[in-house]
């Protein structure tokens, strides 16, 4: 029996931090006083970003563990089993070719809710959601500030991380009309405003891929070839 891991993994911010430190050390006196000040702030904010992302992902996973079904897949029989709150339901997947076993890819398991306590929430779940909501919005404001500091340090006005900018600007600070104050938890980490009315313009892929995108862009901006 093969278990399908639906929990989110913390993003890799440490590699980006190391790339920033190497760049600062390499540039030395070539950095202006303004750039050096921005560099010190950037290092501090990256440390906060790492600590906050780890904590937020833990809360996300606690909510997944408490409120989402567990999925088990037996690839020898093609049977998928869902376990939730003491109940189990199994489904045998049909094979197009009896000689070729069925495989299943891991997907983003997700729960979404409108902010505000539900009658189905335990005290613990309600508290975890409130903490996650507050930390998540602060996380994206911090990440967005990081992109602005990078512009100062590397002296490039066009530096940006689209994933971070969209969530911070379009979902946290200036949501479209029809967007509902809601959050989600998934194997991609927490999601901002997944519930909406009418056509949706902006979508949050999740904290983990968004933060990894930021980390990759930082490593590119502060690489040894930069």
Give the distance, in angstroms, between the N- and C-terminal Cα atoms: 48 Å
- Outline the low-pLDDT stretches: 102-107
The number of E-state strands comes to 7
Quaternary state, please? single chain
Structural class: alpha+beta
Overall 3D geometry?
Answer: globular
Evaluate the radius of gyration.
21 Å
Tally of contiguous helical segments: 5
Overall helicity: 40-55%
Tell me the strand percentage band.
5-15%
Largest sheet: 4 strands, antiparallel
Determine the mean pLDDT: 85
The structural domain count equals 1
SSE series: EHHEEEEHHEEH
Going across the major beta sheet, what is the strand order? 1-2-3-4
Description of the structure:
The protein has 226 residues and is an alpha+beta fold. The chain has five helices and seven strands, in the order E-H-H-E-E-E-E-H-H-E-E-H. The protein is globular. The protein has a four-stranded antiparallel β-sheet, with no helix packed on it. A hairpin with a 4-residue loop joins strand 2 and strand 3. The chain has one domain.
